[in-house]
Amino acid sequence: MNICIIDDDKIYQFLLKKTIHIIRESISVHSYYNGEEALRDFQKIDSICDIIFLDLNMPKMDGLEFMEAYQQLSKSITVTPKIYVATSSISEKDRLEVASYGMVKGYLVKPITLEMVQEILK
Amino acid sequence: MGTKSNFPTSWLTIRPKIIGVAVFLATLLLFSLIIYQEYSLSKDDEKQKETEVLAVIEQNIEQSLKNSYMAALTIALTIDDEGKPHNFEQIAGTILSKNPTIGSVQLVPNGIISYVYPYKSNQKALELDILKDSYSKEEANEAIMDRNMRFAGPIKLKQGGEVVVGRLPIFIQNKFWGFSVVIMDMKDFLANAGIDQFTEMGFKFKWSKHKTNSSQETFFYGETNSYDVKQASKVYIKDGNWSIYIYSTNKEHLLLSLLPLLIVALLISILIGFFTCNFLQQPLRLQRELEAQAVQLFNSEQKFETIFNLAPIGIVHVSAENFKFITANEYFLNKLGLSLEELKKITFDAVWREPEDLTKLLERGGRVETDFIHTKEDDTSLRVKITWLKNKNKPNYIFTVDDITERYKTQSDLAELKSRMEMAAQIAQLGYWEWNADTNEILWTDAMYEICKVSKDTKLTAEFVFSRIHPSDVGRYIECSKLLLNGKDCKPYEIRILAPDGTYIYVLGHFESEKNSEGRLAKIKGTLIDISGEKRIKEELNQSYDMVLNQNQRLINFSYIVSHNLRSHASNIQSLAHLLFEMDHTQEQKEMFNMLDSVSKALDETLFDLNDVINIQNNVQISIENILVKNYIERVLKSLQIEIFQKNAQIHINVPAETKINFNPAYFESILFNFMSNSLKYCHPERSPIIHLDYLVLKDRFVLQIKDNGIGIDLEKNGDKLFGMYKTFSKNADSKGLGLFISKSQMEALGGEITVESELGKGSIFNLCFN
């Protein structure tokens, strides 16, 4: 199983990775600091993620922009990953905006707890 | 009046026309008789004249015949005894010259015409035997028989003309010798008789010849049909066997000549009849006029009485001696509320509030305005205007009393109103101005000069007013003036007026046009109020508002960034603490990590709440729906059912099932949840909570009232902090203090309001007032 974390917060990346590994050591976790970086990697290695934890507020390419770009890209990809938006924003506006993307499987408000990850990995 | 008190007069007056006609007929009859008399006399007169004329004519004819006889005798004397005439020619000539009527003479011995004179004209007759000739023999023989001269004729001559022939039989020694014949021209004969002369005088003649021994009468002179001979006078002349008739034609004209008289008589009769009739009608007419006048008089009296009583002014008749009422009209009685009987018991001066005014009025004359006492309604006053006059012949006065109470009151009110308005204008510093369209004059009140800061002796002209207006506002001013001049309305507007110190004064002007009775523009008028102060305040306010708006925006951005960024860190700390807590530690470390966990959790919650607050206040477009209140109450109760059960709470809901409000559903649920959970949370430790939910309408607003028997709030101490952020008043461990603040914000965001009544230890009432 492959999980991607796209977030500019290094501590968050570390904590989430740690949490995932607490649940299952075998899961490989890739971390990117922004959408652009992730997208570039996706194109290059043609790797397929099962789950993406996506932050909204990021430099260069934020979460929403990433999803726009990924929609274009994913046309050539047969298996689509489950995208979970994980943000510290509790703004209703952001939540509504995200909901309009069909590929988003969940909207998570940080902090991401062990229980939340367990639920997703089930 | 009008009864038949005097029969003959009445009878005459009743039938004047019949009597007129009778008089006319009688007069006419009288005149007719007179005229007839006149006529008879004239007729007799004419008859007389006829007889006289006839006598003259008879005489003339007798004379002619006598002359003829004498002539015939003279001729006969020329015959000697042997029967031979001597000097016939000479004697005949002498006779003819003496008797012009005699045309010729003949001697006819033995009936044969043997001698004629004048010979020439008569020689044809010679040798004619008259005794044998048919037309003469009869008469000739008669003459012989009579032995007297006979006249024959008229005889038509062969040579023309008519003649009368006189034949004198001559006997010598008693033996017939022959005839001496005298022949007269008929014309001459008639002329000699005077017939021509009398014909000219209007007499008409007829002449006839009777045949001997027969009644046969042959007319030979005169117009045959001109008159009936029976009506004529007549004379018979035996010598010629003639009858002469005379008829005066004047008789025919007699009636005609009387005609004018007859007409005059008729006219006079008509006149007399008419005058009689007219004269007799006179009393009747007089009587009728009298009756008409009586009716008129009666009407006038009635009219006067009506006018007196219905006059819209009081009229009283008062004795001059003691001011006792003689009479008063209804108006006066009504005004004083008295009957005439009651009035007669009092005197005129008694109704005067100031009786000395009456004395003054009578001394001074003219009119007076004073107060009357309304006796029935105690002390009520009537304001009246009184005029009076003295009755010329009698010792009394007539007063007119006009009730001017209303007018007086109106005038007073008007004066009051005016002073109030002036005062209001003074207080409001309201300037009033008007422009007269006819005279082009401009009028300003004192306040106007003060507002415009010009001295009061400034001459006001259109140019001056124009020069005072800020150039940017001139266009507006002209536009408004045009509208007003065309009789349209102009909305109030603000303009700037140049003050003498060069600054501008902001004024608000109201404008109006006034039309005269013909609908033409008479005036433009308006008010002006100095709003410089308000203007300044408004500008400052606007600036403050902009500043606050700006600050608010910045604050929101700031708080958003803060909450977001802080949350990131907070959530990381929380996660870290959580992970650390899971690791192996000493007991002390474990406790500390546990504390760190709860601190980070509290921080996160705080930031969460802060975000909520920002969201509510920032979100200007909240959807509003028509929601059924009951549904939300049920939902809230459901989510609170554990607490209700645990605390054994009683919930009394008194909200009609169909009640609906316009509100945001999420907010409504949140607010309701907040208050309900608060009521449960802050319940009194010694009693089970009882919560009442009531629907009320207060001041046209829908109010949801939540009443509990909880611990209550000391409003005096904490009232101002009740809805503040993070204020808690209880020692309750759960209270964070943000709930009421959020609810209040949500209510206010949608125009609602929350009021609170509470008493410490007894309970609280929260009123959610919805718009």
UniProtKB/TrEMBL annotation, chain A:
UniProt xrefs under InterPro entries: CheY-like_superfamily (IPR011006), Sig_transdc_resp-reg_receiver (IPR001789), ST_Response_Regulator (IPR052048)
Any one Pfam family match given in the protein's UniProt record, by short name: Response_reg
Listed PROSITE patterns: RESPONSE_REGULATORY
Keywords: Phosphoprotein
Keyword Phosphoprotein: yes
SMART domains per the UniProt record, alphabetical: REC
Sites bearing 4-aspartylphosphate, chain numbering: 55
Domain spans labelled Response regulatory: 2-122
Cross-referenced PANTHER family: TWO-COMPONENT RESPONSE REGULATOR, TWO-COMPONENT RESPONSE REGULATOR ARR22
Name of the protein in question: Response regulator
Organism: Mesonia ostreae
Taxonomic placement: Bacteria, Pseudomonadati, Bacteroidota, Flavobacteriia, Flavobacteriales
Automatic annotation (TrEMBL), chain B:
Keyword hit for Membrane: yes
Transmembrane is among the record's keywords: yes
Catalytic activity reported: ATP + protein L-histidine = ADP + protein N-phospho-L-histidine
UniProt-annotated location(s): Membrane
Enzyme Commission identifier(s): 2.7.13.3
Transmembrane regions: 18-36, 254-275
Molecular function via GO: ATP binding
Swiss-Prot/TrEMBL keywords: ATP-binding, Kinase, Membrane, Nucleotide-binding, Phosphoprotein, Transferase, Transmembrane, Transmembrane helix
Family annotation (InterPro entries): CHASE_dom, CHASE_sf, HATPase_C_sf, HATPase_dom, His_kinase_dom, PAC, PAS, PAS-assoc_C
Database matches in Pfam families: CHASE (PF03924), HATPase_c (PF02518), PAS_3 (PF08447), PAS_9 (PF13426)
Domain (CHASE): residue spans on this chain: 109-200
SUPFAM superfamilies: ATPase domain of HSP90 chaperone/DNA topoisomerase II/histidine kinase, PYP-like sensor domain (PAS domain)
Histidine kinase domain ranges (all copies): 561-771
Highest taxon in the source lineage: Bacteria
Chain ranges of the PAC domain: 491-543
Signal peptide start and end residues: none
NCBIfam families (alphabetical): sensory_box
Protein name per Swiss-Prot or TrEMBL: histidine kinase
Organism: Mesonia ostreae
Lineage: Bacteria, Pseudomonadati, Bacteroidota, Flavobacteriia, Flavobacteriales
